[in-house]
Amino acid sequence: MAASPTGGDRQEDEPVVIRDKRRISADGAPAPAAEAPAVEIVEEDSTQDALDELTRDLQRVTAEYANYRKRVDRDRGVVAEQATGAVLAALLPILDDLDRAREHGDLVGPFGTMSEQLAQAVAKFGLVGFGEKGDPFDPKLHEAVAHFTSPDVTEATCVDVMRRGYLLGEKLLRPAMVAVGEPAAEEDTAE
């Protein structure tokens, strides 16, 4: 006698019998057992839950990626604007020297042409100069280095410009350095 793998004793001559306990329906297809539909419903629910969770994860990741792309594009624009501002700020002393030379009449001939070309080039990048005599004083744009009372003005006005100011778009690169003329106080005019 030999020991069977299941632990029982069986004889070598004894045939192995396999019994099929599946049920067969009348149309020839195997009929599902009574417990099978309940198991399939549970599996279907868990599959649908997993699908819903994966769909939500995909939507979240897609939204995060779209936000990331927008943020990177915005950051690139800010970096480009800062780099442009840094280069133009480095050119401001040169523009000041050219303004002073122009006031003294030293920019004639080819130097005058080069000065105009430089002014046009920086204007293409959005650099705008401001600060002219007669402009109303704005403390956000002007740096007052001197104050005078003047009977000729009705409000605080720039009466002299020592150094022009510059804007890059809406960003202030440098305030204008000005002398401010203020109207005479009412007490002074009454006397």
UniProtKB/TrEMBL annotation:
It is found in: Cytoplasm. The keyword Cytoplasm applies. One of its GO terms (molecular function) is protein homodimerization activity. GO terms for cellular component: cytoplasm. It comes from the Bacteria. Gene3D superfamilies: 3.90.20.20, Head domain of nucleotide exchange factor GrpE (2.30.22.10). Residues 1-36 are annotated as: Disordered. Residues 44-71 form a coiled coil. Keywords: Chaperone, Coiled coil, Cytoplasm, Stress response. InterPro entries: GrpE, GrpE_CC, GrpE_head. Residues 16-25 have a biased composition (Basic and acidic residues). One of its GO terms (biological process) is protein folding. The keyword Chaperone applies. Signal peptide: none annotated. Belongs to the GrpE family. Homodimer. Participates actively in the response to hyperosmotic and heat shock by preventing the aggregation of stress-denatured proteins, in association with DnaK and GrpE. It is the nucleotide exchange factor for DnaK and may function as a thermosensor. Unfolded proteins bind initially to DnaJ; upon interaction with the DnaJ-bound protein, DnaK hydrolyzes its bound ATP, resulting in the formation of a stable complex. GrpE releases ADP from DnaK; ATP binding to DnaK triggers the release of the substrate protein, thus completing the reaction cycle. This is Protein GrpE.
